[in-house]
Amino acid sequence: MRKWFVSTMITALFIVSACGGGNNNNTNAATNAPAATEEAANNAGNASAAPAEEEIAAEDGATLTVWDSKNERSFVEEMAKEFTAKYNIPVKIEEVESPDQVKKLTTDGPAGIGADVVTFPHDNLGQAVAAGLVLPNDYFEDETKTANAEAAVSAVTSDGILYGYPRSVETYALFYNKDLVQTPPASFDGIKTFAKTFNDPASNKYAFMWETGNLYFNYIWFASTGGYVFGENGTNPADIGMNNDGAVEGLKYFQSLKEILPIKSGDASADIIQGKFADKSVAMTITGPWKVADFKNLGINFGVAPIPTINGKPAVSFSGVKAWYVNSFTKYPNAARLFANFISSKEGQLKDYSLTGAIPANNEAVEDPTFKADEISSGFAAQFVNSQAMPSIPEMGSVWDPMGAALADIWNESKDPKAAADNAVTQVQEAVKGATK
Question: Fewer C-beta within 10 Å: the chain N or C terminus?
Fold first, then answer.
């Protein structure tokens, strides 16, 4: 990418770790998926019969089903209408949250009832490939690699094979209500200071509220001070760094924030936070670009800034790449490829950005004047500089629940951070060993 802030964003995103996004956001995928059927194998084998300069031909009578999250339905509906007008292929949309799609596809795919085209964060790709759930992006491979940032292409590649059609890159950042906060705090110590004059627990009014039990948003407490998920840029599941000295340091700071947010993790859900952010009883929160459209629709006067520093160190967030994939069990693989390529085009990514705030992976889309002038997108871009990609190996699926439980124990039960992290890491190690037997 040619412009500085986008170049820095993408470069840092994937130098720090081998990318790659939750939506909101990245949780478990199935680990005991069935092997691909003969039909799926045949689909993969019939991948690229036509030469690249000719457009692939859809199957006669093709119809498609597409899965996407509820809050992005309007975008998919518009693109589906345009696609149908161009190719005369009907498209049905079903609402399935993107982090849940791989798990659902493990059963619906072999049963022949899964969507033809799906979309999910890159960290689920390893499990999807191991289970034979998605076809390679072979026919449009060269076009995809040329059109999108190299880092985004790498994120949706597994063992040297390109599977995804990049859709967007994402991380989370600090959202602040401009009517309440003139200048966002540069440090979490600054948030604590602001809370002294803003908080009113009797009225459930708090300076800062976020999903304290969700590992995705709370990776900052591990990574900012030296922790990590897996070693070797997220590829070595035998090396887990979520209970090392750096991680424990961050978790202790996490626990100290209970003084400015004296509530249980269950009382800080995404829906509750959104309502309180809208009615100004919460001044700041942490979430991602998928919430931009919702907050705008609610009429909130908000800004986006990098996450404040932790113990003087830049906050390191999880980041990821969302992409479209073709179900290996589809009856219409060519039509599905056409749709995945169509919706992930420059025009598709710009429309996704305009309707949902998704940050494009397409090289030309990020050069668009409208995108470059967007203050909110710039806020996410600044946070990307200090982000790490979620590991995409299948073992990542064993991390979410144990570490989420550890966060809840630390926050709700005041459990010792070191003991909670040790216990969680032991569970992850056992799960990883069990999965490899």
Answer: C
